Amino acid sequence: MIKVKVAVSSKGKKIDDDVDKLFGRCQCFLIVQIKDKKIIDVNPIQNSSSEKIGGAGISAAQCIAKENVDAIITGNIGPRAEDVLKQFDIESYRGDGCIKDVLQEFIKGNLKKINEPAIKRKIVIPTDEKKGLVDCVAEHFGRCNTYTFLDEIGNVVEIIDNTSEHNNGVGLPPELMKKHKANILLCRGIGPRALSLCNKFKIDVYVYPAKKVEELFDLWKSNRIKKANSNDVCKEHKV
């Protein structure tokens, strides 16, 4: 039996009202009890902090803490109010739209935490040499000479030799990329085994026959390459 108590900043007193994006100055909070992923009770409470000249967010956070909730769903929340909530181990989530729908997304685990650090993307491209953005994209993903790593705005971060077992080294290419914290792979082709390993290591793969590193990166950055799946692999390549 799993019980969760959630507060939602609301524009009204009903579950069909919308989430109020202003945490400290919302009209009221809905205190929602969830049991075994089902909503069993909804109780509106007035937000006495909404008319405060200053410190509305902190005051509202203190009020919510007294309700012994596990989480708050709102639009935006200030850092000082967030600090108060953290003191009481109350997680804050961002929600928008009808509260009833937002709660279902919360139950499914689809809401994002407010102020959750964004995942930085590090892109790796198999290359022929060490020429950076003007280098040629290697024909074969696993047997390339080097791997060029870029940040998400296209700056070259590092270029490493391919020290995998395909170049008389140790380990597989996806293991090498994971070691260097890559989470995006752009390449001209990839085998089914390598794609499976990339998926295991949470490295998203995009395949396109571009010739230059800069061209391939620009195509990915502008969303003109779709994420690869089993239909995009090179069947003749084992890795």
- CATH level 1 class label of the largest domain: Alpha Beta
Output mean pLDDT: 91
What letter string, H or E per element, gives the SSE order?
Answer: EEEHEHEHEEEHEHEH
> Total number of β-strand segments?
10
Q: Structural class per helix/strand content?
A: alpha/beta
User: For the CA atoms, what is the radius of gyration?
Assistant: 25 Å
CATH level-3 fold name of the largest domain: Nucleotidyltransferase, domain 5
Distance between the first and last residues' Cα: 46 Å
The low-confidence runs, each spanning 5 or more residues with pLDDT under 50, are none
Overall form: elongated
Share of helical residues: 10-25%
Describe the protein's architecture and organization:
The radius of gyration is 25 Å and the shape is elongated. The protein is an alpha/beta fold. It has a 5-stranded mixed beta sheet, sandwiched between helices. The protein has a 5-stranded mixed beta sheet with strand order 8-7-6-9-10, with helices on both faces. It has helices spanning 56-65, 79-87, 99-107, 173-179, 192-200, 213-221; strands at 3-10, 28-35, 38-46, 71-74, 91-94, 122-127, 146-151, 156-161, 184-187, 204-207. Helix 1 runs parallel beside helix 2. It has 2 domains: 3-107, Dinitrogenase iron-molybdenum cofactor biosynthesis domain (Nucleotidyltransferase, domain 5), CATH 3.30.420.130; 122-232, 2-Layer Sandwich (Nucleotidyltransferase, domain 5), CATH 3.30.420. It has 6 helices and 10 strands, in the order βββαβαβαβββαβαβα.
